[in-house]
Write a structure and sequence with these properties.
- The protein is of the alpha+beta class.
- It contains eight helices and 13 strands.
- The strands form four sheets. The chain has a five-stranded antiparallel β-sheet, covered by helices on one side. Strands 6-7-8-13 form a four-stranded mixed β-sheet, with helices on one face. A two-stranded antiparallel sheet has the order 9-12.
- The longest helix has 14 residues.
- The structure holds iron/sulfur cluster (SF4) (2 copies).
- Keywords: Iron, Iron-sulfur, Metal-binding.
Length: 270
Protein backbone atom coordinates (compact mmCIF):
# COMPACT_ATOMS: atom_id res chain seq x y z
CA UNK A 1 0.00 0.00 0.00
CA UNK A 2 1.34 3.43 -0.92
CA UNK A 3 2.08 5.90 1.86
CA UNK A 4 -0.57 8.64 2.01
CA UNK A 5 0.57 11.88 0.41
CA UNK A 6 1.46 14.71 2.74
CA UNK A 7 -1.45 16.78 3.93
CA UNK A 8 -1.44 20.53 3.46
CA UNK A 9 -3.99 23.19 4.30
CA UNK A 10 -5.11 22.98 0.70
CA UNK A 11 -5.83 19.24 0.86
CA UNK A 12 -9.49 18.61 0.08
CA UNK A 13 -10.60 16.12 2.72
CA UNK A 14 -14.29 15.87 2.08
CA UNK A 15 -16.89 16.49 -0.56
CA UNK A 16 -18.67 14.54 -3.25
CA UNK A 17 -17.06 12.40 -5.89
CA UNK A 18 -16.65 14.02 -9.27
CA UNK A 19 -19.74 14.12 -11.45
CA UNK A 20 -18.11 12.14 -14.26
CA UNK A 21 -17.88 8.98 -12.17
CA UNK A 22 -21.67 8.80 -11.95
CA UNK A 23 -22.36 9.32 -15.65
CA UNK A 24 -22.74 6.72 -18.37
CA UNK A 25 -19.59 6.72 -20.58
CA UNK A 26 -21.61 7.91 -23.61
CA UNK A 27 -22.77 10.91 -21.55
CA UNK A 28 -19.18 11.67 -20.49
CA UNK A 29 -17.94 11.44 -24.07
CA UNK A 30 -20.64 13.76 -25.42
CA UNK A 31 -20.93 16.09 -22.41
CA UNK A 32 -21.97 19.54 -23.67
CA UNK A 33 -21.84 18.34 -27.28
CA UNK A 34 -25.38 17.13 -27.87
CA UNK A 35 -26.99 17.94 -31.21
CA UNK A 36 -30.67 17.27 -30.51
CA UNK A 37 -33.01 14.85 -28.79
CA UNK A 38 -36.42 13.44 -29.62
CA UNK A 39 -39.18 11.40 -28.06
CA UNK A 40 -39.49 7.86 -29.43
CA UNK A 41 -42.60 6.83 -27.49
CA UNK A 42 -44.02 7.44 -23.98
CA UNK A 43 -41.18 7.28 -21.47
CA UNK A 44 -38.46 6.75 -24.08
CA UNK A 45 -36.23 9.34 -25.75
CA UNK A 46 -32.98 9.45 -27.66
CA UNK A 47 -30.19 12.04 -27.61
CA UNK A 48 -27.88 12.41 -30.60
CA UNK A 49 -24.40 13.81 -30.16
CA UNK A 50 -22.32 15.71 -32.71
CA UNK A 51 -19.99 12.69 -32.50
CA UNK A 52 -22.70 10.54 -34.12
CA UNK A 53 -23.43 8.68 -30.85
CA UNK A 54 -27.00 7.91 -29.84
CA UNK A 55 -28.03 7.60 -26.19
CA UNK A 56 -31.41 6.04 -25.34
CA UNK A 57 -33.25 6.90 -22.12
CA UNK A 58 -36.09 4.90 -20.54
CA UNK A 59 -37.89 6.58 -17.65
CA UNK A 60 -40.17 4.85 -15.14
CA UNK A 61 -42.17 6.10 -12.18
CA UNK A 62 -41.39 4.82 -8.67
CA UNK A 63 -43.41 4.86 -5.44
CA UNK A 64 -40.96 7.56 -4.13
CA UNK A 65 -40.43 5.91 -0.74
CA UNK A 66 -38.78 2.84 -2.17
CA UNK A 67 -38.01 -0.33 -0.28
CA UNK A 68 -34.51 -1.77 -0.22
CA UNK A 69 -35.81 -4.74 -2.21
CA UNK A 70 -37.17 -2.47 -4.93
CA UNK A 71 -33.93 -0.47 -5.10
CA UNK A 72 -32.04 -3.75 -5.50
CA UNK A 73 -34.36 -4.78 -8.34
CA UNK A 74 -33.79 -1.40 -10.01
CA UNK A 75 -30.01 -1.77 -9.63
CA UNK A 76 -30.18 -5.29 -11.15
CA UNK A 77 -31.99 -3.82 -14.18
CA UNK A 78 -29.33 -1.10 -14.41
CA UNK A 79 -26.64 -3.80 -14.45
CA UNK A 80 -28.53 -5.81 -17.05
CA UNK A 81 -29.52 -3.03 -19.46
CA UNK A 82 -27.65 0.19 -18.70
CA UNK A 83 -24.06 -0.87 -18.00
CA UNK A 84 -24.62 -0.38 -14.27
CA UNK A 85 -25.85 3.23 -14.53
CA UNK A 86 -29.18 4.68 -13.43
CA UNK A 87 -30.35 7.92 -11.91
CA UNK A 88 -33.35 9.33 -10.07
CA UNK A 89 -34.99 12.48 -11.42
CA UNK A 90 -36.09 15.31 -9.14
CA UNK A 91 -39.61 13.83 -9.17
CA UNK A 92 -38.31 10.39 -8.18
CA UNK A 93 -38.65 8.71 -11.53
CA UNK A 94 -35.83 6.36 -12.37
CA UNK A 95 -33.93 6.66 -15.65
CA UNK A 96 -31.81 4.10 -17.48
CA UNK A 97 -29.48 5.25 -20.28
CA UNK A 98 -27.70 3.07 -22.81
CA UNK A 99 -26.46 3.07 -26.40
CA UNK A 100 -28.23 -0.03 -27.78
CA UNK A 101 -31.73 0.57 -29.17
CA UNK A 102 -32.50 -3.17 -28.96
CA UNK A 103 -32.52 -2.95 -25.13
CA UNK A 104 -35.53 -0.62 -24.98
CA UNK A 105 -38.43 -3.08 -25.24
CA UNK A 106 -36.97 -5.83 -22.97
CA UNK A 107 -36.23 -3.19 -20.31
CA UNK A 108 -39.77 -1.79 -20.52
CA UNK A 109 -41.17 -5.32 -20.15
CA UNK A 110 -39.01 -5.99 -17.07
CA UNK A 111 -39.88 -2.62 -15.51
CA UNK A 112 -43.62 -3.20 -15.97
CA UNK A 113 -43.23 -6.68 -14.47
CA UNK A 114 -41.91 -5.21 -11.21
CA UNK A 115 -44.74 -2.67 -11.19
CA UNK A 116 -42.92 0.43 -12.45
CA UNK A 117 -44.87 2.24 -15.19
CA UNK A 118 -42.83 3.66 -18.08
CA UNK A 119 -43.69 7.25 -18.96
CA UNK A 120 -43.26 10.70 -17.47
CA UNK A 121 -41.57 12.38 -20.46
CA UNK A 122 -43.08 15.20 -22.57
CA UNK A 123 -46.81 16.05 -22.54
CA UNK A 124 -48.00 13.68 -19.82
CA UNK A 125 -48.72 14.08 -16.10
CA UNK A 126 -45.32 13.94 -14.36
CA UNK A 127 -44.99 12.15 -11.00
CA UNK A 128 -46.43 14.27 -8.21
CA UNK A 129 -44.02 16.08 -5.89
CA UNK A 130 -44.90 16.10 -2.23
CA UNK A 131 -43.69 17.50 1.03
CA UNK A 132 -42.45 15.39 3.92
CA UNK A 133 -45.56 14.92 6.02
CA UNK A 134 -45.38 12.62 9.01
CA UNK A 135 -42.07 11.16 7.85
CA UNK A 136 -40.04 14.17 8.95
CA UNK A 137 -42.25 17.07 9.98
CA UNK A 138 -43.95 17.88 13.27
CA UNK A 139 -46.86 20.00 11.97
CA UNK A 140 -48.71 18.26 9.12
CA UNK A 141 -52.48 18.17 8.90
CA UNK A 142 -52.14 14.84 7.12
CA UNK A 143 -49.56 12.66 5.49
CA UNK A 144 -48.67 14.12 2.09
CA UNK A 145 -47.40 10.82 0.74
CA UNK A 146 -50.78 9.16 1.24
CA UNK A 147 -52.44 11.95 -0.73
CA UNK A 148 -49.75 11.63 -3.42
CA UNK A 149 -50.46 7.91 -3.76
CA UNK A 150 -54.22 8.46 -3.97
CA UNK A 151 -53.80 11.06 -6.72
CA UNK A 152 -51.21 9.18 -8.79
CA UNK A 153 -53.21 5.94 -8.62
CA UNK A 154 -55.95 7.87 -10.42
CA UNK A 155 -53.53 9.43 -12.93
CA UNK A 156 -51.64 6.24 -13.81
CA UNK A 157 -52.84 6.30 -17.44
CA UNK A 158 -52.00 10.01 -17.84
CA UNK A 159 -48.41 9.28 -16.72
CA UNK A 160 -48.01 6.62 -19.41
CA UNK A 161 -49.66 8.44 -22.32
CA UNK A 162 -49.08 11.73 -24.15
CA UNK A 163 -52.53 13.29 -24.01
CA UNK A 164 -51.87 16.50 -22.09
CA UNK A 165 -51.41 19.82 -23.94
CA UNK A 166 -48.07 20.17 -22.18
CA UNK A 167 -46.20 18.48 -19.34
CA UNK A 168 -48.30 18.81 -16.18
CA UNK A 169 -46.51 18.94 -12.81
CA UNK A 170 -48.57 18.40 -9.67
CA UNK A 171 -47.66 18.76 -6.04
CA UNK A 172 -49.32 18.05 -2.75
CA UNK A 173 -48.41 19.33 0.68
CA UNK A 174 -49.74 18.94 4.17
CA UNK A 175 -49.93 22.49 5.51
CA UNK A 176 -50.18 26.01 4.18
CA UNK A 177 -46.42 26.60 4.54
CA UNK A 178 -46.16 24.25 1.56
CA UNK A 179 -42.45 23.62 2.14
CA UNK A 180 -41.70 21.81 -1.09
CA UNK A 181 -44.79 21.74 -3.23
CA UNK A 182 -44.06 23.99 -6.19
CA UNK A 183 -45.84 22.88 -9.36
CA UNK A 184 -48.30 23.83 -12.13
CA UNK A 185 -51.17 22.57 -9.97
CA UNK A 186 -50.77 22.50 -6.18
CA UNK A 187 -53.01 20.54 -3.81
CA UNK A 188 -52.69 21.59 -0.18
CA UNK A 189 -54.32 19.57 2.60
CA UNK A 190 -54.37 21.80 5.66
CA UNK A 191 -55.79 22.44 9.09
CA UNK A 192 -59.01 24.42 9.32
CA UNK A 193 -58.74 26.62 12.38
CA UNK A 194 -56.24 28.48 14.57
CA UNK A 195 -54.65 26.76 17.57
CA UNK A 196 -56.43 26.53 20.93
CA UNK A 197 -54.14 27.77 23.66
CA UNK A 198 -53.92 25.97 26.99
CA UNK A 199 -52.71 28.91 29.07
CA UNK A 200 -52.31 26.86 32.24
CA UNK A 201 -49.82 24.54 30.61
CA UNK A 202 -48.18 26.94 28.19
CA UNK A 203 -46.21 28.97 30.71
CA UNK A 204 -44.69 25.83 32.23
CA UNK A 205 -44.30 23.68 29.12
CA UNK A 206 -43.20 25.87 26.23
CA UNK A 207 -40.39 28.23 25.36
CA UNK A 208 -42.41 31.30 24.42
CA UNK A 209 -39.86 32.93 22.06
CA UNK A 210 -39.51 29.64 20.21
CA UNK A 211 -43.26 29.45 19.56
CA UNK A 212 -43.36 33.14 18.54
CA UNK A 213 -40.45 32.65 16.14
CA UNK A 214 -42.09 29.64 14.51
CA UNK A 215 -45.06 31.58 13.13
CA UNK A 216 -44.51 32.43 9.44
CA UNK A 217 -46.95 35.37 9.52
CA UNK A 218 -46.10 36.89 12.92
CA UNK A 219 -49.55 36.08 14.31
CA UNK A 220 -48.33 35.08 17.80
CA UNK A 221 -47.72 37.68 20.47
CA UNK A 222 -46.68 37.49 24.13
CA UNK A 223 -49.39 38.28 26.65
CA UNK A 224 -50.23 37.85 30.34
CA UNK A 225 -53.07 35.55 31.42
CA UNK A 226 -53.93 35.08 35.12
CA UNK A 227 -50.68 36.83 36.02
CA UNK A 228 -48.66 34.28 34.03
CA UNK A 229 -46.69 34.80 30.85
CA UNK A 230 -48.49 33.28 27.90
CA UNK A 231 -49.18 33.77 24.19
CA UNK A 232 -52.08 34.96 22.08
CA UNK A 233 -52.88 34.41 18.41
CA UNK A 234 -54.15 37.09 16.03
CA UNK A 235 -56.75 34.94 14.28
CA UNK A 236 -57.12 37.45 11.42
CA UNK A 237 -53.49 36.84 10.52
CA UNK A 238 -53.23 33.12 11.33
CA UNK A 239 -53.00 30.89 8.24
CA UNK A 240 -53.70 27.77 10.36
CA UNK A 241 -50.43 26.12 9.35
CA UNK A 242 -49.82 24.35 12.67
CA UNK A 243 -46.16 25.39 12.94
CA UNK A 244 -46.65 26.72 16.46
CA UNK A 245 -47.98 23.35 17.63
CA UNK A 246 -44.72 21.74 16.54
CA UNK A 247 -42.82 24.05 18.90
CA UNK A 248 -45.39 24.26 21.66
CA UNK A 249 -47.81 21.39 22.41
CA UNK A 250 -49.98 23.78 24.42
CA UNK A 251 -51.03 25.40 21.13
CA UNK A 252 -53.15 22.45 20.04
CA UNK A 253 -54.32 22.75 16.43
CA UNK A 254 -55.97 19.35 16.19
CA UNK A 255 -59.06 18.38 18.11
CA UNK A 256 -59.67 14.73 19.01
CA UNK A 257 -63.30 14.89 17.83
CA UNK A 258 -63.79 17.97 15.71
CA UNK A 259 -60.68 18.21 13.51
CA UNK A 260 -61.28 18.40 9.78
CA UNK A 261 -59.09 18.97 6.77
CA UNK A 262 -59.38 21.67 4.14
CA UNK A 263 -58.23 20.78 0.63
CA UNK A 264 -57.08 23.73 -1.44
CA UNK A 265 -56.29 23.38 -5.12
CA UNK A 266 -54.61 26.13 -7.13
CA UNK A 267 -52.74 26.51 -10.36
CA UNK A 268 -50.24 28.83 -11.93
CA UNK A 269 -51.66 31.94 -13.51
CA UNK A 270 -51.41 31.81 -17.29
S1 LIG B 1 -43.84 22.22 6.53
FE1 LIG B 1 -45.98 21.85 5.99
S2 LIG B 1 -45.94 21.10 3.88
FE2 LIG B 1 -43.87 20.87 4.72
S3 LIG B 1 -43.81 18.76 5.53
FE3 LIG B 1 -44.34 20.11 7.22
S4 LIG B 1 -46.58 20.07 7.25
FE4 LIG B 1 -45.96 19.29 5.25
S1 LIG C 1 -51.10 28.06 13.16
FE1 LIG C 1 -49.37 28.92 11.96
S2 LIG C 1 -50.04 30.96 11.39
FE2 LIG C 1 -51.38 30.27 13.06
S3 LIG C 1 -50.43 31.05 14.89
FE3 LIG C 1 -49.66 28.98 14.62
S4 LIG C 1 -47.76 29.28 13.47
FE4 LIG C 1 -48.90 31.19 13.29
Amino acid sequence: MNAPSERTWKTVESGPHTLEGALHPVVVKNYGKWKYHKLIKPGVMVHYGHSGDALYTVRAGTPRQNTVDLVRQICDLADQYADGFMRFTIRNSVEFMFAEESRIDPLIKDLEEIGLPVGGIANCVAPIAHTQGWLHCDIPATDASGVAKGIMDNLYAEFKTLEMPNKVRLSTSCCSINCGGQADVAIVVKHTRPPRIDHAKLSTLCELPKAVARCPVAAIRPTIVNNKRSLMVDEEKCIVCGACFGACPSMEINHPEHSQFAIWVGRKKQ
